[in-house]
Amino acid sequence: MNRAALYFTAPGLLEIREEPLPSPPPGKVLVKTLLSAISAGSELLAYRGLCPPDLSLDESIPSLQGKCTFPMKYGYSLVGRVTALGSGVPGEWEDRMVFSFQPHASAFAAAVEELLPLPPGVSPEEALFLPNLETAVNLAMDGRAVIGEKAVVFGQGLVGLLTTAVLGMHPLARLLAVDRHRLRREASLQFGAGAAFDASDPNLAAAVMDGLGKEDGREGADLAFEISGAPEALEQAISVTGFSGRIVIGSWYGVKPVRLNLGGAFHRSRIRLISSQVSTIDPEFSGRWTKARRMALV
Fold this sequence. Notes:
The protein is an alpha/beta fold. It has helices spanning 42-48, 124-127, 130-143, 158-167, 182-190, 204-212, 231-240, 265-269, 291-297, and strands at residues 2-10, 13-20, 28-36, 78-85, 97-100, 107-111, 115-117, 150-154, 174-179, 195-198, 221-226, 241-249, 272-275. It has a six-stranded parallel β-sheet, with helices on both faces. A five-stranded antiparallel β-sheet has the order 6-3-4-5-7. A two-stranded antiparallel sheet has the order 1-2.
């Protein structure tokens, strides 16, 4: 049988190609895709040709081992139904609804270790959000939010909104959101933010600082997250983070340059910039946490 697969062939250009898809080999299953989610962050970088060409698409995902060079297949959130079993695969996998980290395609073959059966009560549409929610959980873990802290989330796209929702479960003193789009700001309030601010406001820093308050004697955020994908947002995050604060950088800027003013308040503020990426777990947690445990939580 054949399958249709989506290829990124040049900046801004896509092709759907027919490919042969043989019967599943031993230990693997064939899955027919029902839904495939589009990543508006990493995938848009690939589509625009802005990811570093010497970088692997994702070293932790077997289906994304290639480099960020055209032509390539990309995508990482598929839900489908198992339609055929290779030898040695238990019969219980037949007709199962599963999630998998796979590029966009109408069908695929994968080892059962690469599949996550949908938990009871989770719809196929909801399951598409698993990678993004895993990223949000990873961001929250890397930020190590402490009771009573003040936090700001820059960027209220899909991952930003989910991060706001996860942080909203923490007993924070303040949780603020920043985004240039009104509908996203409104959504962030529903997801747990106490207030939301327009990223394009020339007086953004002053507005956020006012929203954080200083009735406790401390100015600025204890914790900030930069998840907008916009390099200038990192400068904004630095401007509202207080002494010894933490900034977790979840954005992947690709080849976009990041220009920061580190000669001002940052120099004396002991602010920590923390790189966060969902493919791995912070070594500080890895003695107790595995990716399987984190995904079970998600």
